[in-house]
Design goal:
The protein is of the alpha/beta class. The chain has a single domain, classed as Alpha-Beta Barrel (TIM Barrel). The protein has eleven helices and twelve strands. It has helices spanning 37-46, 78-94, 151-171, 185-190, 205-222, 245-257, 284-294, 307-315, 326-330, 334-342, 365-370; strands spanning 9-11, 14-16, 20-22, 54-61, 98-104, 132-133, 147-148, 175-180, 229-234, 262-266, 298-301, 321-324. Strand 10, helix 7 and strand 11 (298-301) form a beta-alpha-beta unit. It is globular.
Amino acid sequence: MTSALFSPITLRGLTLPNRLVVSPMCQYNSTDGTANDWHLMHLGQFSLGGSGALVMTESTHVNKVGRITPKCATMDTDENEAAMKRVIDFCRQYGVAKQGLQLGHAGRKGSTLPPALGGKPLTAEQGAWETVAPSALPYDEGWHTPRALTVDEIRQITADFVGSVKRAERIGYDVVEMHAGHGYLIHQFLSPLSNTRTDQYGGSLENRMRFALETFAAMRAAWPADKPMGVRVSATDWVEGGWSAEDTVVLARELKALGCDYIDASTAALDPRQKIPLSAGYQVPFAEQIRREVEIPTMAVGLIGTAAQAEDIIASGKADFVVMARGAMWDPRFAWHAAEELGGEAQYAPRTMPCHPSMRPWLFPNRQKAN
C-alpha cells in the first residue's frame, strides 16, 4: 500500500518526505520577546520526525507593538535572533524535521493578557500599550480602540516584516510564512468589517489587499529564491458582509503571481459575531477551493486528528499538506503512528532509531507481512 500522506513534495529547493506539518502555536512564554528553554523543549520534541516533516515556530511578531501579549515572541532585536538561533540550531543538531517561521503583527488584537490569564485587554497598570490598526475600530466592546495607521507607518511595518525575514535567514529557517489571518493586522486590512479607510489602503478589494501584497512582495524579495514562502489566511470571517472565500481566491491568485509557494487555509477570528459550523475538518473545503481555483499548493488545518482523515485529505486532492496543532500536542509521535497504520515511512532522528518498528518486529506483525 502506498500512502499519499507519506509521499514527498517539493517547494522550490525544499523537498519534504511527507505532508505532515506542525502548526505554529503561540506559547505565551517569551521573555521580552525572546525565546528560552521552553521553546527549545517545545520545538525540539516536534523536530525528531514523529510529528511531521516541517515544524513551524509560533507566530513571531515583527515589532513590540505587534505582540498579542507581553509574553509573545518577537523577531526585532539581536537578542531575539540569537536566542531563537540557539533553539533552531538545537532542533537541527538532534532532529530531522525542517524548520519554518510564521511572522505577524497583532494590530488591534494586541495588548492583551495571555489566554491562560483570561485573554482580556491589558489595563494601564498591567502595562497596556497603544494598539494600531487600519481603522480606529476596536475588536469588541471593552477592547482598546486602536489608532488608525498613517501611510508612512504602514510602510514602516512592511519594513519591519522585511527585517524579521532577514533575521530568519540568518537563523537558518527553511520556510517563512506571512500571517494574514486570525483577525490580526494584515487580516484587519483585508476585511471590510475592520477596514473603513478611504485612501489607497481601503475601500475596494484591490485597495484592501494592497498592504498584504506589498508586504509579501517585500518579504519575498528579501528571502532566498530557493527557499519557499507561504501565507496563512482566514479564508472567511464567518460574518455576513465580511471577508469571503471568493475574496481569498482573488488574494491567492495575486500572491501566487508574487512568488507565494503555498496558502495555509484557516478561517475566522476577526469579529466576535462569527458563527462557525464546527465539525471534523470543517476548514478543509477552503483549502480545496483555493487549490482547485488558483492551482497553488495548500495546507489544511482544523479539527484533523486521525491518520485516515489526514490520508483522505491528501489522497483525494483536497490539500497538499495536513497541519496539526492540538493534534500534535496530544500525540507528538502522530507521524510515526500514522505511518504504521497507513503503510508509509516516517522520519526518525538518529537517537530515536532504537524505537523504530524494524527494531521491534514482534510488535509490528503487519509491517513484517507487508515486507
